[in-house]
Amino acid sequence: MTKRDLCEIQIPLHNLDIIAGISGMLQPRLLTRQSLHRCECLHTLSRRLIHSYTTEILPPQDPGRATNEPLGVQSHPSYAPEEKNAAILRTYKPRTPGVRHLKRPINDHLYKGRPHLPLTFARKGQHIGGRNSHTGKITVRHRGGGAKRRIRVLDYHRMEPGKHLVERIEHDPGRSAHIALLSRTVGQTRSYSYIVAPHGMRAGEEVESFRQGIPDHLIRELGGTADAGMIAAKTAFRGNCMPLHMIPPGTIIYNVGLKKGGGAQLCRSAGTFATVVSKGEGGSKKAMYVDVKLKSGEVRRIHRDCCATIGTASNVNFNRRQLGKAGRKRWLGIRPTVRGVAMNASDHPHGGGRGKSKGNVHPVSIWGQLTKSGYKTRTKSNVNRYVVTPRPRSEGKKAKAKKKKKAD
């Protein structure tokens, strides 16, 4: 039989419905609702987005009809670490000048389809171009344009208890880290939510939140004991969210909250993490706080009931990427940055004159504020009392000269 004979084969019409039904079974998709109404700004959208969960009603199962078995998911599947000499960035053959220097992190595990639409809304309004909503003036420079996006609504509180199944890992154009779509089925209701995915998480895993407390079945499994070490051995796994007082010292965490009962605020970008240094003991006020060391080197005192997630924020090689061309920067909504020396004297303090001269003045910003040589802009009276050890900062010329003089 030749290729021409195969192309001329006619399929009866009643068989096309069967083929369409089989193809629909082989490609399961999430049921989506209609997208949110069109809004003009984020202020009105925040009122309509009541919570970061969407639910759907599942049809009742017919006992006489065969159904697919659920995925065999382990509570904590083993994750093979990356090889020591494995490639972490993908390069391309320079067929065009734009891809000669292009480097991207290798993320072949990401979902290739569209996001879960009920958990997204369109990114529209004046704020996209760096302008405020009152006067329309530019308040943030170097922003504007870019590709169309939909903002993903993430669950930073993780208040819903129980096990959640990781449906897939997705790329979010609005952040550097990847996000994970979670699903939880209770009876005939299934709910979906997005979270910031930890490094190493894959589809099919199960995560759990312990912000509402330790579940009863876990207490019975431990024999009714409340030993912190035994509880941590059963709960402190990658992707699980829990209060800081339940996390043992030395654990790597991300998505750290700052307010009791609030959502995550620290360590949310790609590759960031914090470390639990120590926990206060006794009946004093220090027992209500936990010392957490951030990636910048700062040690901060945080309330023991604030939330944190075990692991490191995903896409750890994000800072090693190279865009390759200026146009890719414009696709991200970033406009060019012009040097002050290249401007006119009416546009910048460094502008004007002949050649690359800034008029024999100290380096200043466009508003005339000193920008280099260690110029301090923070008042000494405004001290954060929750900072135990401040992060190391760059020193000015005078401070460096004093240190050098003392050393000599």
From TrEMBL:
Compositional bias per record (Basic residues), positions renumbered to this chain: 399-408
Principal subcellular localisation of the protein: mitochondrion
Superkingdom assignment: Eukaryota
InterPro entries, per database record: NA-bd_OB-fold, Rib_uL2_dom2, Ribosomal_uL2, Ribosomal_uL2_bac/org-type, Ribosomal_uL2_C, Ribosomal_uL2_CS, Ribosomal_uL2_dom3, Ribosomal_uL2_RNA-bd_dom
Record localization: Mitochondrion
Function: Component of the mitochondrial ribosome (mitoribosome), a dedicated translation machinery responsible for the synthesis of mitochondrial genome-encoded proteins, including at least some of the essential transmembrane subunits of the mitochondrial respiratory chain. The mitoribosomes are attached to the mitochondrial inner membrane and translation products are cotranslationally integrated into the membrane.
Protein name from the UniProt record: Large ribosomal subunit protein uL2m
Lineage, broadest ranks: Eukaryota, Fungi, Dikarya, Ascomycota, Pezizomycotina
